[in-house]
Amino acid sequence: xxxxxxxxxxxxxxxxxxxxxxxxxxxxxxxxxxxxxxxxxxxxxxxxxxxxxxxxxxxxxxxxxxxxxxxxxxxxxxxxxxxxxxxxxxxxxxxxxxxxxxxxxxxxxxxxxxxxxxxxxxxxxxxxxxxxxxxxxxxxxxxxxxxxxxxxxxxxxxxxxxxxxxxxxxxxxxxxxxxxxxxxxxxxxxxxxxxxxxxxxxxxxxxxxxxxxxxxxxxxxxxxxxxxxxxxxxxxxxxxxxxxxxxxxxxxxxxxxxxxxxxxxxxxxxxxxxxxxxxxxxxxxxxxxxxxxxxxxxxxxxxxxxxxxxxxxxxxxxxxxxxxxxxxxxxxxxxxxxxxxxxxxxxxxxxxxxxxxxxxxxxxxxxxxxxxxxxxxxxxxxxxxxxxxxxxxxxxxxxxxxxxxxxxxxxxxxxxxxxxxxxxxxxxxxxxx
Length: 433
Known about the structure:
Helix 4 (74-90) runs antiparallel to helix 5 and helix 8 crosses helix 15 (410-428). The chain has 2 domains: 2-122, no CATH class; 135-428, Alpha/Beta hydrolase fold, catalytic domain (Rossmann fold), CATH 3.40.50. Helix 10 links the parallel strand 7 (293-298) and strand 8 (318-322). It has an 8-stranded mixed beta sheet with strand order 1-2-4-3-7-8-9-10, with helices on both faces. A two-stranded antiparallel sheet has the order 5-6. It contains 15 helices and 10 strands. Helix content is 45%, strand content 11%. The protein is globular, with a radius of gyration of 24 Å. The protein is α/β, with parallel strands linked by helices and 433 residues long.
């Protein structure tokens, strides 16, 4: 089944074939001698389908049911898909068994096409596996061994000389089985993934900065977005890039533990702020100075990243938040307080970034914080601005960046990550200031 989970569902041959078959079935059902009764059925199906799809999109955008405005392409896929499916349904009573078979196929294909089209509009789940929450990453044959502490002084961009046989690109893999990161606080995460830059794949790799990243909700520990950005930067900087662990802050894509230690989901903070650091220190050639460690997240993961950067300045020297939620649980605050904190709002408030910043006042000098948000993401811009201001007031060297033309989904990632990494490279000594 590995081949199935690796199928590209964004722009590969599979979605194109399904879209084409859907269109063929739709056209075939319309090729017949019209009768008044048939015309009314088809017109009614088209009207109800298009109207229902438009209404659904308007409702979702008005209520922020999906965490922000839907991508523009959803305005086509929802009405078109619903209309095609209803045309198939009203054609199930056609004369001729072959027309009924095509009608049934159209219903199925229209729904599948709609799901694939909307998924492509979001652009986050690029494979069949990611749509079903199954990682398509292979395991490493072996992780690079931790290197001795560097004996030369100076930033890596000056002191590192890549060997001739260094790979040209980084490598991603699943940390599972014997290489899985253990969770000691009762939280059950999905397997993390890892990105090793070209320099880390050499026989004697240098110690490199560490980035721990989280994706959004719903989402998977997918390293492809950060890997693509870092491969481009590594190619310009002697194969240098941070080692990245993309870890799971959710447990599964249908739950939100709000970055907290709760009876229901276990101790998520311990997994990120103890278990992962211990694993990286023991198993990976990472720099031991925590000033070179970065906590990073997108959307839901961005809220966790800011929370833990605020709570643990001794662990995380830098912060990157790509289109982050304003704070953990912002989208379902009242219910989160009730179900995860036994109705205790004080406990909920104590888990917010502002509380961590207050408790660690004066400890963020020299820490970099980068916040990015899409230009076409109005529901998130105020919260990200507020967080950037909080970080700056706490002492972070803060950058707030609006990604031109980006919304809250794939364009936010593809625009925000490269911008943040450029700044992080300079901060970490991977490129010249």
